[in-house]
Amino acid sequence: YNILPTLIYYSKGLDQPVGLFEAEAVAEDIETRLQNLEKENVEWVGSFCNLLKIKPLSITLSQETAQQIRVVFAKQEEANTLKSFLPRAGSLIPFTPARLAVSLQQEGEKEVMIQRSVPCRLQKEWFHYLPGGLVLDSEKVGEKIKEETEKQLSLHWKPDHVDFQQEGILRTFYHPEKNCLYVSLKGAERLGKLYAGLSECDLTQIFSWDMQSLFYILYSQGFHLAPSFSVAPEIAEPGDLVFENSDFIQPFLAASREKFITKQGKPFLPLSTREERILTTNRIESEIQKDLVQWGEDYRASQVHLDPKAHFDVPKPTRNAFWNNLFLSVKKYCRGDERKILRWGLDLSGGKSVQIELLNAAGEVVKDEDSIKKGIEEITKRVNRMGVSEVSIRQIGHQIVLDFPSSQALEAKDLIAAST
After folding, report:
1. For residue 312, what is the DSSP state?
2. Mean pLDDT by groups of 10 residues along the chain of 420 residues
3. Is residue 400 part of a domain?
4. Residue 270 to residues 131, 281, 384: CA-CA distances in angstroms?
5. d(CA 49, CA 280)
6. Which of 22, 106, 267, 400 shows its CA 20 to 30 Å from the CA of 278?
């Protein structure tokens, strides 16, 4: 049972550092993971329509942007049903990057536009390899989302107010130093103060409608209001209305399920050894399987809920958890499954393994590489003072793992007692 998995696992060159070839494979895996999320969103919508007993003619990603799903019906009543029930169900999806909402920009009475949480497609070319990890080029991501924002504004914001119809009145910027996106509407703040002092008239109503439409579009893209004096002069002048998006890259990082850190102002994915990468891949795929199992449990619970409205909160899972788990087990077996292996000198001689996480003064888990290395040095000194020999100390992600062959009497609390 354990011999073959052990041989496969130790044949992977576990101590070898992750090189360029492996790093490119990691970038491709991340790209594939986000593409799969698109398909899963479309499948979720199809299952939800089945739950509501409505039959869409088509469910496809929008041709204009990957952030939206277009659902077309034969009857307007069916479209209205989906618009009514989806906001609650879409917000209850446990995995945040997979959540869905009804888009504020609708195009037809028999169509429903659904907003995804990930703003655009992630491309593996946006990753660059450095010794020790992958860097995500946030400038390329920012420029892409800037293009997507401009496209959405040109398609959906059709102002009727004469002052908003001038060329160059609405401008979009990406500020690489602050890693922020900005949209500025020239003179809008000044106009707002002007109309606030006037009585209700057609012009003030048109101004209000145009502003409300712009707010809806930009809020759905992750923007929020920012004071004009807080941005550079080339972005906005006094009297301009400014919208800011400083978290545009977070949906990508969350959807990747990887543990990125910030290094020199850019998202950085540490890649140490092949063993660490195997463990990370196994963790991510186990999380996906866990989400699928939880989805099935939530669906069954919703169907027996006392509140009839809760029956429409969770659609039926689109994949079978049993077969998915079987396929996952085969993949882990071939890749290397750390749960089924024998540790040389540990399992064969009755040893013990201890996993340690470092905490800072605020009680948060330490993930900084320098701090972890200092922790390893301190633990090594402590182990030496205890007189325990043949101890293997290694780093896996942000955890420190210690293997103690033939040391059954040692307790983890003895090692970490009086830690600072």
Report:
1. G
2. 75 86 94 95 97 96 88 95 96 95 84 92 92 92 90 86 81 87 86 71 82 88 85 82 90 94 90 90 93 96 93 95 92 81 56 75 80 86 72 78 62 50
3. yes
4. 9, 13, 29
5. 35
6. 267
22 and 84 share one domain? yes
Tell me which residue has tokens 């492996």. Answer: 22
Is residue 303 domain-shared with residue 364, that is, in the same domain? no
Q: What 3-state DSSP class applies to 24?
A: helix
Q: What is the pLDDT of residue 419?
A: 41
User: In sequence order, which ranges of 102-201 are alpha helices (DSSP H)?
Assistant: 138-156, 188-196
How many domains does the chain contain in total?
A: 3
Per the CB < 8 A criterion, the answer to whether 146 and 172 are in contact is yes
Question: First-to-last CA distance in the chain?
Answer: 41
pLDDT score recorded for residue 389: 63
The amino acid present at 368, given as its one-letter code, is: D
Residue type, 12: K
**Alpha-carbon torsion (81, 86, 89, 93), positive or negative:** positive
Structure tokens given for 11: 């044949």
Round to whole Å and give the CA distance between 45 and 317: 11
In a domain, 264, yes or no: no
Q: Would you state the pLDDT for residue 126?
A: 94
Which pair of tokens denotes residue 334?
């071939």
Indicate if 8 and 77 belong to the same structural domain. Answer: yes
In this structure, which amino acid lies at residue 344?
W
d(CA 184, CA 227): 11
- Give domain status of residue 265, yes or no: no
**What phi and psi, each to the nearest 5 degrees, are found at residue 216?**
-60, -45
- The whole-number pLDDT of residue 197 equals 65
Domain boundary, last residue among 313, 335, 357: 335
Residue showing tokens 């990930």: 118
Q: What amino acid is encoded at 330 in this protein?
A: V
Q: Are 64 and 160 spatial neighbours (Cβ–Cβ below 8 Å)?
A: no
142, 218: one domain: yes
Cα 314 to Cα 297: distance, rounded to the nearest angstrom:
10
Domain that holds residue 106: 3-126+272-335
DSSP reduced 3-state for 411 = coil
Q: Are residues 227 and 294 in the same domain?
A: no
DSSP secondary structure, 8-27, as one string: HHHTT-TTSBP-HHHHHHHH
Among 99, 209, 211, 223, smallest CA distance to 149 is for 223
pTM passes above 0.85: no
AA letter at 50 = N
Domain boundary among 292, 313, 335: 335
